[in-house]
Specification:
about 220 residues; alpha/beta; Rossmann fold; three-stranded antiparallel beta sheet
């Protein structure tokens, strides 16, 4: 672990808290962070040809094509390595085996360790409850779940306006859950002999989830 950069992957259904935990880990370890959702949303803010291709997938809650996602992630990893990050925390990427193969290839190229993988497990109905009240900062993407907050309130971190995501309707959420659960089986099979896998109880407080994850990380990264 000492001679290579570590890569930590957080998996789980939408709303499981992957982004929140990725931020906590990145801040604690000084790691760079990859979020395919953030990369896609940032690209969609531009007027590029790529951004126009992404819109229908995003609005329907359907994963973007691997060719596009791999390109965005590859560019991000290259940038993080150039900035000499200590390691990388990835939120949701790789999503399927094709993306996992891409990550394996690029990890070899940039001298990254085999990944440490966490699956954050949360019951379906809790996910729907969370996402139906979720608000996200339009500037820094910080996530809020408190029911007392509303759109147009400001982010406590950067002052940005809080917005509801277009794919956080119950219909789209249920569709996304089915897609993620199908991919969970593929992830477990792929990573059985590749990297280290831990199941995490995501149906607890943010702090307790973070503690459970760290109880594993502190031993591996020691």
């Amino acid at each position: 672990m000492k001679n290579k950069r570590s890569i930590i992957i957080l998996f789980g259904d939408p709303g499981a808290g992957k982004g929140t935990q990725a931020e906590i880990i990145a801040d604690k370890l000084g790691y760079g962070r990859i979020s395919t959702g953030d990369l896609i949303r940032e690209e969609m803010k531009t007027s590029s040809v790529l951004s126009k291709k992404l819109v229908p997938f995003y609005n329907a809650g359907i994963p973007a094509p691997n060719q596009i996602v791999n390109k965005l992630v590859g560019q991000k990893i290259k940038s993080l390595i150039k900035n000499k990050v200590k390691g990388i925390v990835s939120d949701t990427f790789p999503f399927d085996n094709e993306q996992a193969d891409f990550l394996k290839k690029i990890s070899s190229e940039y001298n990254l360790n085999e990944p440490i993988v966490f699956w954050i497990d949360v019951p379906d109905e809790e996910i729907i409850k969370r996402l139906s009240t979720r608000l996200i900062c339009s500037k820094c993407n910080k996530i809020y779940f408190e029911g007392k907050l509303k759109e147009s309130d400001k982010c406590s971190k950067c002052g940005g306006i809080l917005k509801k995501r277009s794919d956080d309707s119950e219909e789209v959420i249920r569709k996304r859950i089915k897609v993620y659960q199908k991919e969970e089986l593929a992830h477990r099979k792929y990573y059985k002999d590749y990297g280290t896998w831990f199941d995490i109880n995501g149906n607890q407080s943010i702090d307790d989830v973070a503690k459970e994850i760290w109880s594993h990380l502190r031993l591996i990264l020691a």
